[in-house]
Design brief:
Blueprint (H helix, E strand, L loop, with lengths): L15 H10 L8 H14 L3 E5 L2 H11 L7 E5 L8 H5 L3 E5 L10 H13 L7 E4 L8 H11 L3 E4 L7 E2 L2 E2 L6 E5 L12 E5 L2 H11 L22 H11 L2 H18 L6 E3 L6 E2 L5 E5 L7 H10 L5 E2 L15 E2 L8 H8 E4 L7 H14 L1
Parallel strand pairs: 2-3, 2-4, 3-14, 4-5, 5-8
Antiparallel strand pairs: 1-9, 6-7, 6-11, 8-9, 10-12, 12-15, 13-15
Bound molecules: pyridoxal-5'-phosphate (PLP).
Amino acid sequence: MDKRIYLSAPDITGNEIKYAMDAFQSNWIAPLGPNVDAFEKMFIERVGAKSALALSSGTAAIHLAVKYLGVNPGDEVFCSALTFAGSCFPICYEGGQPVFIDSEPDSWNMSPSALERALDDSKKRNKLPKAVVVVNVYGQSADMDAILPLCEDYGVPVLEDAAESLGACYKGRNSGTFGYFGAFSFNGNKIVTTSGGGMLVSDDAEAIEKCRFWSTQSREKVLHYEHVEIGYNYRLSNILAGVGMGQLEQLDQKIEKRKSIFAKYKEAFSAIEEIEMFPIPSWSQPNYWLSVILINEKSRVSPQKVLDALAQNNIEARPVWKPMHLQPVFAKNAFFPHFQDGESVSEHLYHWGICLPSGTGLTDAELDRVIETIKKLF
Ligand SMILES: Cc1ncc(COP(=O)(O)O)c(C=O)c1O
């Protein structure tokens, strides 16, 4: 059996081990220390936000932002439907109710027309959402110039879920800096990983300091342990922050490599009518986190057949995210489709889309193996 090809494996090729060793050698084996501070500083400089808070996961970053935005039991929070559960579970941690907004076909991200209908509906019910979680799926920004003015008109803050889009840009500006908060993930499969970790950014330094306080068990500034509020143990380890620094230094090369993988798939499948690549609008500069293909509905080869053939060749591939409104746990939650007649874009993408191996460690031979496996079917 050929060696397994993973969807997006970690790729450690720079100063990660050196910086992590610094933590061991200085005995800063703690969820704070010089690497955590340096990682936050590097991050701020890279994405262009005013302040940052390094955390143990992207989910923790979203949770603290949801809490800061004042989500209380029974409150509604809008969220992109086409995403991973980490985008919306934190809404539920605070007792909120996610309301899911469909994708639009041009970027696969939040549909501005579905969002507008949802906001209009919530205003009529006198129950505006506490926040809108806008996800940048597969490393591509949502159409912020269409989404942000709508949220502004209704006075609803935006939490940008940039877990997958570190280094991507929207009209030249860094993904994750458009909302009141931006949340990033350094999970093992992300473009920059710390094995597990996350970052919350905002231009509101006080908001970040409040979240920092909650993330360290809400410890009051006294020597004995004093707590006036409930807190969380959410900080990133100083060892892992070293891994993050080494990874972040290579972000531009990582984007270039993932872009070349996307280009190679695009070229290889250009003659196959039944395969379309993930769409990239003119305003988007993605980080190409995952290369995703969309099989045409009229295709002789079903997406399942493609997934089966890849699995038989020891290649990891996955369907596009199963939309949150189709998840059993959210069966009762409201959903606003892109099309007025009720047709859903995200459901279509889930049924016909496939995420292909896209890790920066992929060799040309491995990429050829993926391509040949698919080409043979068509
Ligand atoms: C869109 C999105 N949001 C949130 C998360 C949660 O991040 P984490 O796994 O670091 O908690 C992830 C990925 O893991 C994600 O892809």
